[in-house]
């Protein structure tokens, strides 16, 4: 007797519909185009600010070779691999209490200073928080990619910071003592005014010294507390 073999179903590959394949290819093409566009934008990222009302404005551009800068008739290019030192700090002013600064030094180049505010009029300085944070972060990434032997410092120099902190603490204690004396003498109005001044003094001074503590940081990780936002 012959053996009847059971027929095995043949499993074939199910091809995706043409409309689904075309849609996927279109999405991939759009993503690739967006990536190329973003890369081109980052390759020519620029930042401009005016350090004074009467002086020339400064413009910085991240190029593939280095940090290009111009101020009036002066211009130059600071190569990423020649950058030797960078410093980030919190530098408030009387007319702008939220102000950040990045300083850059390179061999054979003038030192550069990038500030997070710009002068608009005699009585107004405009904050450029988002633009400054984006540009400074991208600059650190370029310097890190160039593998430059850069020394990155944060805050104020130690010889300036620690004596200033001692003076700040001493003045704070003296003002606190005045408030206690005024309360003991039942002088409520002077105590209130001194207390308000004491609160503002400690708030601004504490912010300044907490953000400007001296130290070092990795060029690939700029300190977040020294970037606006």
Throw out a few tags for this protein.
229 residues, 41% helix, alpha+beta, four-stranded antiparallel beta sheet, 2 domains, PH-domain like, five-stranded mixed beta sheet, disordered N terminus, single chain
Draw up the topology in text.
Elements: H1 18-43, E1 46-49, E2 58-62, E3 66-71, E4 74-79, E5 83-90, E6 100-106, E7 112-115, E8 117-121, E9 124-127, H2 129-145, E10 151-154, H3 158-184, H4 188-211, E11 215-216
Parallel strand pairs: 5-10
Antiparallel strand pairs: 1-2, 2-3, 3-4, 5-6, 6-7, 8-9, 10-11
Kindly state the percentage of residues in helix.
Answer: 40-55%
* Major sheet description: 5 strands, mixed
How large is the radius of gyration?
Answer: 29 Å
Give the strand content.
15-25%
Note the quaternary state here. Answer: single chain
Mean pLDDT: 82
Strand order of the largest sheet: 7-6-5-10-11
Report how far the terminal alpha carbons are from each other.
87 Å
Total count of helical runs of at least 4 residues = 4
What does this structure look like?
The chain is of the alpha+beta class and 229 residues long. The chain has two domains: 42-155 and 214-226, PH-domain like (Roll); 159-206. Helices cover 41% and strands 24% of the residues. The chain contains four helices and eleven strands. The strands form three sheets. Strands 7-6-5-10-11 form a five-stranded mixed beta sheet, covered by helices on one side. Strand 1 and strand 2 (58-62) form a beta hairpin. Helix 3 (158-184) runs antiparallel to helix 4 (188-211). Mean pLDDT is 82; it is low at 1-41.
């Amino acid at each position: 007797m012959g053996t009847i073999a059971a027929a095995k179903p043949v499993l074939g590959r199910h091809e995706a519909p043409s409309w689904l394949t075309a849609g996927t290819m279109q999405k991939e093409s759009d993503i690739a185009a967006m990536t190329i566009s973003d890369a081109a934008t980052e390759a020519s990222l620029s930042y401009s600010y005016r350090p004074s009302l009467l002086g020339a404005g400064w413009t910085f551009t991240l190029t593939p070779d280095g940090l290009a800068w111009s101020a009036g008739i002066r211009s130059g290019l600071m190569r990423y691999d020649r950058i030797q030192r960078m410093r980030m700090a919190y530098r408030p002013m009387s007319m702008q209490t939220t102000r950040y600064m990045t300083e850059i030094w390179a061999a054979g180049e003038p030192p550069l200073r990038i500030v997070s505010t710009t002068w608009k009029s005699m009585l107004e300085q405009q904050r450029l928080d988002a633009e400054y944070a984006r540009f400074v972060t991208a600059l650190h990434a370029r310097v890190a990619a160039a593998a430059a032997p850069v020394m990155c410092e944060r805050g104020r120099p130690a010889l300036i910071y620690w004596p200033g902190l001692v003076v700040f603490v001493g003045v704070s204690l003296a003002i606190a003592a005045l408030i206690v004396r005024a309360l003991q003498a039942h002088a409520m109005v002077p105590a209130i005014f001194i207390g308000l001044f004491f609160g503002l003094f400690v708030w601004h001074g504490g912010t300044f010294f907490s953000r400007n503590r001296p130290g070092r940081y990795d060029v690939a990780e700029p300190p977040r507390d020294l970037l606006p936002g």
